[in-house]
Amino acid sequence: SDIGSQKERVVTEEEWLQKWEMGNIGFHKEQGHPLLQKYLDVLLNGRSGLRIFFPLCGKAVEMKWLADMGHSVVGVEVSEQAVKEFFSEHSLPYCEEPVPEISGAKMFQSTSGNISLYCCSIYDVSSSIVGKFDGVWDRGALVAVNPCDRQRYASLMISLLEKNSSYLLVTVSYDPNKHKGPPFYVPESEIQSLFG
């Protein structure tokens, strides 16, 4: 697949943290994503009380929306600022504790217990730490990870899935020679080869 000039592009953790510090977060949707509302039935598949994973969650408003429906939400985000903004913008009380298995990581959990956000690199989590999930809302994660890390990312995500889970994935389609990313262009053929 020709992903043009993006193949070698690497965005560092520091660059992502800087985006949050500078408020350069055009990827954040204040109203939630219309595609999640449109395909919610596919994600839930008639089930209630699901564990739903938000990779690279930022401060996605959909986390509160799904938790309010009775689901348990777990997110991973490298920016502590984003995580704290999520709780403060929704007036949600939370507690903060270290994650013993991951050096320097913290877990922020709503006092209601149904939203747990891990502040660390996505590659530091595993099913032994965060458990397995019935659903994944991947709105801006696959398109944000560096192209060279896609296989590693997809393998991690597959390892976090329960048997009958649903994975909703949003990608973007454009000419990768005209935009350096992120969001990166992920052709459908590559999604097939990553996730099968």
Automatic annotation (TrEMBL):
Pfam families: TPMT (PF05724). This is thiopurine S-methyltransferase. It catalyses: S-adenosyl-L-methionine + a thiopurine = S-adenosyl-L-homocysteine + a thiopurine S-methylether. It is found in: Cytoplasm. GO terms for cellular component: cytoplasm. It is an enzyme of class 2 (transferase). The gene is Tpmt. InterPro entries: SAM-dependent_MTases_sf, Thiopurine_S-MeTrfase, TPMT. One of its GO terms (biological process) is methylation. One of its GO terms (molecular function) is thiopurine S-methyltransferase activity. Its EC number is 2.1.1.67.
